[in-house]
Protein 1
Amino acid sequence: MASWNSFPLEITYQTLGWLAFVSWSISFYPQVILNFRRKSVVGLSLDFLLLNLTKHSSYLIYNTVLYFSPAAQQQYFEKYGHEQMIPVAANDVAFSIHAVVLTAITLFQVFIYERGTQTISKISIGIVSVVWLFAAVCVFVALPSHSWLWLISIFNFIQVSMTVIKYIPQAVMNFMRKSTEGFSIGNILLDFTGGVANYGQMATQSIDQNSWVNFYGNIGKTLLSLVSIFFDILFMVQHYILYRPKKTSGINGKATDKGNNDPLIDSSDDHQPQASNV
């Protein structure tokens, strides 16, 4: 297994990794807190939550196996070279565990808070069912030959696929409602920070090792950053430009519409008192 050539780059790598972990981990809390305060999940796509749970569960399996399993690591070195470094860090494992727990908590809020007419679509249920059935089949295929690297690569492929499609229901919901109300922008800002830091961490390792193997050796982590950054920018455009939230009153916190500022007293002729004839 390769070692670091530059101590400053190693420190930078660790710093960026834990920055990504902290940013991504904290990013789950604004939505949970928003749901708790509103006692409602209206505006939050339930399809997004279900797909997100599948995504993070798959990513957890990939990270924990490659980080802790000597057999999987040995197969990785045999495929990519013994001079390479394992592309999974401790912060990746910690993030995955935290992500699964917080996503499950957010999904639990769906069952206890007001959700209006929102339901989980049959399409999302079908996708998740097919994905886990496919994963189960792959487990049985890998068992006889102990093809652990191939197996966790399947889970990495699943998490990449879920990353690509999980944001779509929320983006479409925002477009249909012409609003991002109920969807925490704090989540997006922190997610964006984590994505940039995660990509920077991988670039730092590649610069130190003078090799870009870790980018395609852990294509899931690479695409995770790039796809997250893309959709985070889309959500920020929706929130701050396309569907800017309405201003709220300082008294009761209810939304006001700047385009409908009716006067306190209607001064139209139809409502003016008629002068009595003497």
Protein 2
Amino acid sequence: MELAAGGFSGEQFREACAELQQPAVAGADWQLLVETSGISIYRLLDQKTGLYEYKVFGVLEDCSPTLLADVYMDLDYRKQWDQYVKELYEQECNGQTVVYWEVKYPFPMSNRDYVYLRQRRDLDVEGRKIHVVLAQSTSVPQLVERSGVIRVKQYKQSLAIESDGKKGSKVFMYYFDNPGGQIPSWLINWAAKNQSRTKQEAQNQRDLIQFSANPNTLQ
């Protein structure tokens, strides 16, 4: 779906809310990859790229929806815990707030960078307060591609959060990106799968938040 003028459409926000209530993984080739600590991670093969799309469902206990959404939007905080961030900031471009993000890749691979739109809405859906964050790659003349860094041009993410009725949060997340370059798709998918397995041993909620932020991080 193309971005609406000025950002994301109301329909895109509603779709994320709908998945939070009723996960859409039936009737397609979605595979359950990991189920642990109240979190289920599904993947779907993208036939065009040979890479996987991901959906995450579950409950994060002892983490309120508002706090989780605020942390997720806090780029300065991310720079503290994400060791793969080389550069991360927001910039006003053509009347819109755009995020620039450069990710460190291990030698001999080139770093990747992202330019994307990101919007948050706090919605009231039939009395349910739902925080929704949408992100998608874009292109602006102010942020040109850099020498030695590969621009990720296919990136999309959505996140929906509401109360679990207790002290925690019910969460839905969708993620896809294509890092491009000469990295074989099997290697990218292998890294993502092993990142998922690592989360089986997670002892706190922040590890799961980090995975949700970028499941395709190579280690």
